[in-house]
């Protein structure tokens, strides 16, 4: 795939990074699943709106009105990008973690006052696991070896709970795994969950940047995602979904902006997004995320999928052709995985592989257990693995560099000496 060009320019693509031999090479950023570099158009928009920055909502000055309009327009753009229904709320958060913690505070209690029940799989990122263990009653299901088996397990768990009159309020599921890029079929999941009265929240951190998802057409009830994985800078994310739980739930943050009226004797909280957005909001972050949504919306979804699929397929086939390399999979029959490929190299610690790729080849990847300890443990990768990930800004040549570099490691070993210092592999 050496001649595959990025679909859209991103910032930082031409950065030269130093290698141990003293030379410099263009940085190959194959860690976009952790944080994707901003699209050039996003950087341009931020530069354009920064001078217009002023306090929002209650400011009477002209620029305050402009800032307020920018913020509220960004909210609508972000919601529209994920197919928000007319009555859905789009709440601007810090990131996916924030969005899921917010929703966890809004899951209704059971009729007897016990916390609402949430069903979750062990494949999840900790951000979609730990919030449900706080304040809601989480059941963590060990997923099956195939998609079909996992869907059956989910159905059985939901149906047993409904029959026992302890129904689940919510099924919390990854839109795409941050370890393997795989996912469960959204339409089927929604149909199963709704049949047993459970709502569905998708952790869209790895889905939204790579595939178009519409709440309206899929029936997904809530979607959480992060700006910094969606080609915008850090600090803004979103929770989009059904209004009733959000309007009735505990305000996520207590403070100015979330209240209609405060008396010493008690507080009257807002409904709508403001209820959960106390404090001065991240206007520039929201505008940047909206700009990224506009840029992605201008691309044909099939083109994005084709670009990333070509790179992913090459990564998998190139890596699997190397002796001692194993690619991690969750579901043997998963369809249409996004551009995330996790692998191990027998005989080399994942931390050493990642340090070697950086120091000797200028390639950025991630190693470890990817905030998915239960999954890595179940699959037998407790010592961690290495993850390469691609997006619309990735060039085929970067993927070829990674495959060649891993091949060199297996054939010749690392050329520099590596050591662990404070838990990190360094030259
Ligand atoms: N879910 C998934 C699937 C992720 O990949 C990540 C980030 N690694 C998160 C949730 C958490 O995202 P954030 O750190 O932006 O809150």
TrEMBL record:
The keyword Signal does not apply. It comes from the Bacteria. It catalyses: (sulfur carrier)-H + L-cysteine = (sulfur carrier)-SH + L-alanine. GO terms for molecular function: transaminase activity. Its cofactor is pyridoxal 5'-phosphate. Residues 29-402 form the Aminotransferase class V domain. The keyword Transferase applies. It holds the Pfam family Aminotran_5. Keywords: Aminotransferase, Pyridoxal phosphate, Transferase. PANTHER family: CYSTEINE DESULFURASE, CYSTEINE DESULFURASE 1, CHLOROPLASTIC. Belongs to the class-V pyridoxal-phosphate-dependent aminotransferase family. Csd subfamily. This is Aminotransferase class V-fold PLP-dependent enzyme. It comes from Promicromonospora alba.
């Amino acid at each position: 795939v050496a001649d595959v060009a990025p679909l859209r320019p991103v910032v930082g693509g031409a950065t030269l990074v130093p290698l141990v031999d003293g030379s410099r090479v263009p940085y190959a950023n194959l860690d976009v699943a952790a944080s994707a570099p901003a699209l050039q158009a996003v950087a341009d928009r931020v530069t354009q709106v920064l001078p217009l920055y002023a306090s929002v909502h209650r400011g009477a000055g002209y620029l305050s009105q402009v800032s307020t309009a920018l913020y509220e327009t960004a909210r609508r753009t972000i919601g529209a990008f994920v197919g928000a229904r007319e009555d859905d709320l789009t709440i601007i958060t810090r990131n996916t973690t924030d969005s899921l913690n917010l929703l966890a505070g809004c899951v209704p209690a059971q009729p007897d006052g016990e916390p609402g029940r949430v069903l979750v799989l062990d494949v999840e990122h900790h951000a979609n696991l730990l919030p449900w263990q706080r304040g809601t009653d989480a059941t963590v299901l060990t997923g099956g070896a195939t998609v079909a088996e996992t869907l059956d397990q989910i159905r059985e768990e939901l149906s047993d709970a409904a029959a026992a009159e302890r129904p689940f309020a919510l099924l919390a599921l990854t839109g795409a795994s941050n370890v393997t890029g795989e996912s469960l079929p959204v339409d089927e999941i929604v149909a199963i969950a709704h049949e047993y009265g459970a709502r569905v929240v998708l952790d869209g951190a790895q889905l939204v940047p790579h595939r178009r998802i519409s709440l309206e057409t899929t029936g997904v009830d809530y979607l959480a995602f992060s700006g910094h994985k969606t080609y915008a800078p850090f600090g803004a994310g979103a929770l989009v979904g059904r209004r009733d739980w959000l309007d009735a739930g505990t305000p996520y943050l207590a403070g100015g902006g979330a209240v209609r009226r405060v008396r010493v004797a008690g507080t009257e909280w807002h409904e709508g997004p403001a209820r959960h957005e106390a404090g001065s909001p991240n206007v520039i972050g929201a505008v940047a995320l909206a700009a990224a949504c506009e840029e992605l919306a201008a691309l044909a979804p099939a083109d994005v999928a084709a670009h990333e699929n070509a790179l992913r397929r090459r990564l998998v086939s190139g890596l699997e052709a190397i002796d001692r390399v194993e690619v991690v999979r969750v579901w043997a029959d998963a369809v249409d995985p996004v551009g995330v490929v996790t692998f191990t190299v027998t005989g080399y610690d994942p931390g050493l592989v990642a340090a070697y790729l950086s120091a000797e080849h200028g390639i950025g990847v991630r190693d470890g257990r990817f905030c998915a300890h239960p999954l890595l443990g179940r699959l037998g990768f407790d010592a961690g693995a290495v993850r390469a990930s691609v997006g619309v800004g990735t060039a085929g040549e970067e993927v070829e560099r990674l495959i060649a570099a891993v091949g060199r490691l297996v054939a010749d070993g690392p050329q520099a000496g590596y050591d662990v210092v404070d838990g990190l592999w360094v030259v």
